[in-house]
């Protein structure tokens, strides 16, 4: 309506907003399986998108672990991921963590492990230091991101989280879905979101039992260390011998070097110092390391796998290291810390030693001093196999829908975290905008939005990950020679992905 016109009043011509219908008294109960990035983001997006329309909604997250998992190392947040987290209220909470809130990343610099030659970069700025739509990249420890997300979650009165709940089955009863847990308890809800990752229990027990996860043949061997100081002057150091040939535990032959330096101990942020490798009876010297050949984050390419290095705090006091390598599936059990072995110190040390030898055999022959330092680190290396869920399968059944890796796990890319956030936000917006429609209609509309882009991203990720496999001499040189062209060719697509806005789709 319009107020009466009166030239003497400041509100002349002002149009009053139309009245908004009262929010629905409906009491929708949403169950979310998994409290990782996709699960927590979905809960926050529900509060933001559905809450204004259905203030009596209730969300319960069920996490299989008894406590928040600290595994996973550091995660790369691209500009689009940071923008999504900002809108969910997480970025501000992450900044409250101080230096531990992550390191700003202008670019991931690529270079040859063999020669040290620069091969280009994956840029998160416009070349003038400006972020994409105001956001750069950020490398942060996964546990720090999880804590920030949970801190925001705890401020939502309609959301709660329950730990130690492993799904063993699903049933339907009276227009509700029943989750059955291994502790013999159950929970009923009007809608269930499966955010339980690549090995999703909801997918394998209910939505599509015939679609298991599969090993890609590649794995991360990674660790997090306190950034060592630079080495003393060259005159005080013992030089490395030239590379010789050795065979790695993965069955491949790589270059390696032998070092006459004293065995060193490097503490990590993910494991206690009591687990750090050392030789009995030796005097341990403080670890040192040459200056990395990158400002904040870099990827060294070789024909025996690639090595990622990145600071993950603003003070550059913590360094995340991850080798992306080809490992035979038959060797995985011998490299994993799980089951009863995790409490056996001898077993832990044996695995750390085997993985250190794997790193050494692949990278000790590098032409870059920093990489040779990494190859000789005596630290707590951990193995994380990379699994995927092939595209083309079902994403939903009944009142259950899969989001994130549970639906379409793919090898990690620059913007992997963003895909989980995209799923969460876009589904919750679809639900809110079509809240009076049947769930089958909502699921179908969401799938129509997401399936095409996701399957295209899966194909691109597969092509990229083929470059991390072991290669022959000529193939390795070709990988180096063509990388600048590949980066240039894909630049427009990367920039478009980082400008994507799930709130406008």
From TrEMBL:
Signal peptide region: none
Keyword Magnesium: no
GO molecular-function term, one example from the UniProt record: monooxygenase activity
Ranges of compositional bias, category Low complexity: 235-293
Pfam family, one: FAD_binding_3
This protein's UniProt keywords: FAD, Flavoprotein, Monooxygenase, Oxidoreductase
Domain (FAD-binding) ranges: 29-262
Region Disordered, annotated ranges: 1-20, 223-297
Keyword Oxidoreductase: yes
Gene3D superfamilies named in the record: FAD/NAD(P)-binding domain (3.50.50.60)
UniProt cross-references to InterPro entries, sorted A to Z: FAD-bd, FAD-dep_Monooxygenase_BioMet, FAD/NAD-bd_sf
Protein family membership: Belongs to the paxM FAD-dependent monooxygenase family.
Protein name in UniProt: FAD-binding domain-containing protein
Organism expressing this protein natively: Aspergillus mulundensis
């Amino acid at each position: 309506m319009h107020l009466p016109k009166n030239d003497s009043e400041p509100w002349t011509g002002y149009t009053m907003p139309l009245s908004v219908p009262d929010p629905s008294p409906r009491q929708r109960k949403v169950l979310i399986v998994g409290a990782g990035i996709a699960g927590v983001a979905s809960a926050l997006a529900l509060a933001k998108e559905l809450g204004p329309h259905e203030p009596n909604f209730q969300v319960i997250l069920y996490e299989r672990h008894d406590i928040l998992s600290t595994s996973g190392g550091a995660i790369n947040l691209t500009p689009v991921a940071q923008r999504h987290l900002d809108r969910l209220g997480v970025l501000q909470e992450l900044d409250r963590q101080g230096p531990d809130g992550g390191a700003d990343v202008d670019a991931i610099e690529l270079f040859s492990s063999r020669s040290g030659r620069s091969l280009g970069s994956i840029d998160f700025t416009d070349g003038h230091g400006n972020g994409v739509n105001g956001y750069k990249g950020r490398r942060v420890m996964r546990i720090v991101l999880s804590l920030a997300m949970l801190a925001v979650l705890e401020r939502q009165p309609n959301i709660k989280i329950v730990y130690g709940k492993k799904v063993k089955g699903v049933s339907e009863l009276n227009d509700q879905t029943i989750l059955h847990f291994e502790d013999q308890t159950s929970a009923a809800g009007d809608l269930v979101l499966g955010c339980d990752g690549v090995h999703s229990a909801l997918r394998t027990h209910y939505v599509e039992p015939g679609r298991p996860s599969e090993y890609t043949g590649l794995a991360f061997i990674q660790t997090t260390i306190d950034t060592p100081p630079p080495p003393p002057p060259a005159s005080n150091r013992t030089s490395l011998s030239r590379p010789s040939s050795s065979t790695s535990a993965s069955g491949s032959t790589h270059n390696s070097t032998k070092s006459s330096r004293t065995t060193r101990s490097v503490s990590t942020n993910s494991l206690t110092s009591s687990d750090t490798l050392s030789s009995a009876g030796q005097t341990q010297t403080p670890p040192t390391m040459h200056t990395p050949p990158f400002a904040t984050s870099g990827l060294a390419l070789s024909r025996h796998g690639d090595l990622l290095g990145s600071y993950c705090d603003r003070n550059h006091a913590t360094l995340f290291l991850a080798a992306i390598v080809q490992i035979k599936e038959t060797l995985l059990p011998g490299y994993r810390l799980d089951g009863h072995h995790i409490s056996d110190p001898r077993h832990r040390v044996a695995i750390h030693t085997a993985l250190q030898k794997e790193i050494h055999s692949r990278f000790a022959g590098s032409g870059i001093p920093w990489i040779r330092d990494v190859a000789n680190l005596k630290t707590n290396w951990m193995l994380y196999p990379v699994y995927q869920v092939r595209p083309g399968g079902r994403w939903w059944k009944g009142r259950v829908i899969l989001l994130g890796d549970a639906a379409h796990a793919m090898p990690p890319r620059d913007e992997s975290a963003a895909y989980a956030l995209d799923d969460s936000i876009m589904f919750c917006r679809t639900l809110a905008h079509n809240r009076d429609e049947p769930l089958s209609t909502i699921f179908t509309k969401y799938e129509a939005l997401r399936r095409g882009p996701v399957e295209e991203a899966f194909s691109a990720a597969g092509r990229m990950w083929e470059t991390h496999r072991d290669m022959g001499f000529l193939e390795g040189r070709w990988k180096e020679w063509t990388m600048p062209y590949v980066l240039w060719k894909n630049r427009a697509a990367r920039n478009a992905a980082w400008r994507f806005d799930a709130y406008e789709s």
